[in-house]
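Quick one: structure tokens for this chain, please?
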Amino acid sequence: MEASVGFGIIGTGNIAQFHAACIEKISNAELLGVLSKSQSRALQMAPKFNAPVFWEEEAILENPKVDVIIICNESGLHGETIS
């Protein structure tokens, strides 16, 4: 049995939706959370992919089940997000 890989996504735009759809297609992968500064977009995306919403970066980063974080916010914010 393969170990499950937990994913979190930061951002809720088109590329985030694309990545979430790809995660759904991987048998041993699970989307464990979505983080967004936009409440309305997060609340639209999360149920679509059966994932909880996180409002603080620390909360998704500290989740022990999340193995991979995919950064999909605005490209100009990537550096700030990872630091």
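The CA atoms of residues 4 and 18 lie 20 Å apart.
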